[in-house]
Design goal:
The protein is an all-alpha fold. It has seven helices and no strands. It starts with a helix and ends with a helix.
Length: about 170
């Protein structure tokens, strides 16, 4: 999954309107992106624990959920920003223009993935006692749904359909 994401993002980043300055070869980019992926996985694991995930009981499930979040939210951003952590963090504070910039589109998709994972936790404490209600099934489904929702929003906004609908209404 990471290899496919890497190849697609490297191809699409050639068409990016905002380029990150500096030369970096492919091996360094892969190494930096994988390092950022591991840091993201560890960070999401700690955040999940601090938000109530069991530490020892479901350690592997929490680690896999953290890997999923990191691969959907952090890894694409690190590839587009060429493994430069400082540039990636600085870009998070900027406004989002998903119609023209690949990095902003990925930032929107990453935010929707994290929000989806967070919203997926709401059914867990309900007293339905269903198998699908256990940690981290609903959060995983929420993160994937948030990622797909973010992708569809970016595709919809980038297609120009929103602008044509606005013109018809006004």
């Amino acid at each position: 999954m990471l290899l496919g994401s890497y190849l697609i993002l490297r191809y699409l980043s050639k068409f990016n309107t905002r380029q990150v300055q500096g030369k970096i070869n492919e091996i360094q980019l892969v190494a930096y992106s994988l390092f950022i992926f591991v840091i993201g996985t560890f960070s999401f694991h700690c955040i999940s624990f601090f938000l109530g995930a069991p530490l020892f009981e479901n350690f592997i499930q929490t680690l896999l959920f953290s890997c999923l979040l990191s691969s959907l939210a952090i890894f694409p951003l690190s590839v587009v920003h060429k493994g430069k952590w400082e540039v990636m963090v600085d870009d998070l504070a900027n406004s989002i223009d998903i119609k023209s910039c690949l990095a902003d589109s990925l930032k929107f998709i990453s935010c929707s993935t994290i929000i989806g994972g967070w919203l997926g936790a709401f059914p867990i404490p309900l007293d339905w006692d269903r198998d699908w209600q256990t940690w981290p099934i609903t959060c995983t489904v929420g993160a994937i749904a948030g990622n797909l929702g973010g992708l569809w929003c970016v595709i919809f906004a980038s297609s120009g359909l929103v602008d044509s609908i606005k013109q018809k209404i006004m």
